[in-house]
Design a protein that fits this description.
With about 250 residues, the protein is mostly helical. It is built from 14 helices and no strands.
Length: about 250
């Protein structure tokens, strides 16, 4: 809880004022979280359980960071700890470009107009520029910040990349980002349960938007430990009682 709450506090300050000093403090905190996730699966499970679903950009950023680092740990092989630290920074700061989006657009209680969407779609490139100007961007972080809204169908932004043109790091972030957004309570959206969100992604988004193998591994993050061992969560997604709401 201390780790999670301190991360939220720093992210809130960062979105209010994206200065180099705060980014540097955030990087240290992110490195500590990455070290914790890489070394302690039980602590990771508790961090995932602590994620909160009242929507604030800074809360969303921490949730996506936790999900993505844990997901990357289980998915990627041959990645050094140093590279994981850079990945972690990219995951936690994936939405830093939203600090440049007017609040009336960012917090609008309803659908955005086309002109407002044009502004909103600038946040990946804006985020890259913020980090680049301050000297905090490296290849791993840049890929995540720039590509986390790209989709396999080519319908994403800002570049409309397709399929394997989207880097695996960005694909990891995109799945975590989508899942957290769907389970979030907003003034214009009732949250889905974790199971409902995963099931909806599987039924309607997996083939066109996300790599199916990536998605199956992401699902395992939410399985109790004993079910992870026998892959029971995969079966639960395809064969479950109607009243089963467990992820």
């Amino acid at each position: 809880r201390v780790v999670y709450d301190s991360s939220k506090y720093l992210m809130q300050k960062l979105f209010e004022e994206p200065r180099a000093e705060i980014i540097s403090r955030t990087k240290k905190t992110v490195n500590n979280i990455v070290s914790l996730i890489l070394s302690d699966r039980k602590a990771t499970h508790h961090l995932i359980q602590l994620t909160e679903y009242d929507y604030y950009t800074y809360t969303h950023s921490v949730n996506v960071g936790v999900f993505s680092v844990a997901f990357a740990r289980d998915l990627l092989r041959g990645v050094s700890d140093q590279e994981f630290y850079e990945l972690g920074l990219g995951f936690f700061l994936h939405d830093i470009g939203k600090a440049t989006i007017p609040l009336e657009i960012l917090n609008k209680p309803g659908p955005l107009t086309e002109d407002e969407w044009k502004i909103m779609r600038m946040h990946p490139e804006n985020g890259y520029r913020i980090l680049d100007d301050m000297g905090f961007i490296r290849r791993e972080s840049a890929i995540i910040v720039q590509q986390h809204h790209e989709r396999a169908s080519g319908g994403g932004y800002p570049q409309g990349l397709r399929g394997d043109k989207i880097h695996p790091y960005a694909q990891i972030c995109a799945i975590a980002d989508t899942f957290d957004a769907m389970t979030t309570k907003r003034c214009y959206q009732s949250p889905c349960s974790a199971f409902e969100s995963l099931d909806l992604i599987k039924q309607k988004m997996m083939q066109q938007e996300f790599d199916p193998d990536f998605f199956e591994k992401f699902v395992l993050l939410f399985a109790p430990e004993k079910r992870q061992k026998n892959n029971g969560i995969k079966k639960a997604l395809t064969d479950r009682p109607e009243n089963d709401q467990e992820p």
